[in-house]
């Protein structure tokens, strides 16, 4: 998968090649540095991280005084890796937990994000990954506002071979469906319950009410292990604003960046981690069931500067 990501980034994104070309010049002019900065900003790395990277590159490339592309590539790789924060803990909390009652409860993972970002698809793909690790998974279709979401999730459930708890009527209370799903998962003794939620962003108070209620209600059945925020990598600054709103209303524990296959702007990984202080845990690389990968900082940076 990382190979595919690398191919796609290399094909679509001029980030790595532009930076390497400019940085390998013997005497880098101010105009070159400006182009480097622009290239970083265009890749959605964000203003703060771009400044940091610029300072580091100016210093190191100047000190080294090198035009050797391999040395320049190594510097760039190291500095980008620092920005991606390779030491963040990206493991998914997907093992059953013992509750206050001393009983085992499934790991409960809430998937949140604006509609259209790929939330439902990501629930299906994540279920696939977990099943491949021999975990028992159950899905909860608590996106009751988008009419087709529950059907879509049911299709994923069939495809991946995991049960789906849904309401039999449209417009049901999402918290009630989430509660039923976690209860069913607990009774069945599954390892993980993945809950798909609705992402209507018409106003912050509404979102806060809705997600807050889901979380409270679910917590009566099992501690919430993770809240994964699903973001569409192709939406740039708009996506960043969405991310901030979600982070303000609920404790996000990880980010899933979808549609990274469709953009040259992989720098958004850096920007969103920095902004939220939360690790990117998975990346979406396509629409198929196997197109979700745990985020690997080193592979990602290699892909950018290959
Ligand atoms: P939701 O409204 O957030 O639940 O979004 P969906 O799961 O319905 O996804 C919206 C669209 O994005 C669908 O056409 C998905 O197939 C597509 N999609 C989801 N993840 C990815 C991804 O990683 N890459 C690509 N190219 N498309 C994706």
Total DSSP helices:
12
* Estimated structural class: alpha/beta
What bound compounds does this protein have? guanosine-5'-diphosphate
Question: What's the total count of β strands?
Answer: 10
Q: What form results from the Cα inertia axes?
A: elongated
Q: What low-confidence regions span 5 or more consecutive residues with pLDDT below 50?
A: none
Q: Average pLDDT, to the nearest integer? A: 88
Q: Which value, in Å, is the CA radius of gyration?
A: 21 Å
Order of helices and strands: HHHHHEEEHEHEHEHEHEHEEH
Give the strand line-up of the largest sheet: 5-4-6-3-7-8-9-10
Instruction: Estimate percent helicity.
Output: 40-55%
- Quote the distance from N terminus to C terminus: 15 Å
Q: Which band does the percent of strand residues land in?
A: 15-25%
Biggest beta-sheet profile: 8 strands, mixed
EC number: 3.6.5.4
Domain SRP54-type proteins GTP-binding: 279-292
Protein name: Signal recognition particle receptor FtsY
Enzyme class: hydrolase
Describe this structure in words.
By secondary structure, the chain is α/β, with parallel strands linked by helices. It has helices at about 1-10, 15-25, 30-40, 45-65, 70-85, 120-130, 150-160, 175-190, 205-220, 235-250, 270-275, 295-305; strands spanning about 95-100, 105, 105-110, 135-140, 165, 190-195, 225-230, 255-260, 280-285, 290-295. The strands form two sheets. An eight-stranded mixed sheet has the order 5-4-6-3-7-8-9-10, with helices on both faces. The chain is built from twelve helices and ten strands. β4, α7 (about 150-160) and β5 (about 165) form a beta-alpha-beta unit. The model has no long low-confidence stretch (mean pLDDT about 90). The longest helix has 18 residues, at about 45-65. About 50% of the residues lie in helices and about 15% in strands. α10 (about 235-250) packs parallel to α11. It is elongated and about 65 Å long. It binds guanosine-5'-diphosphate. Guanosine-5'-diphosphate binds near residues 116 and 117.
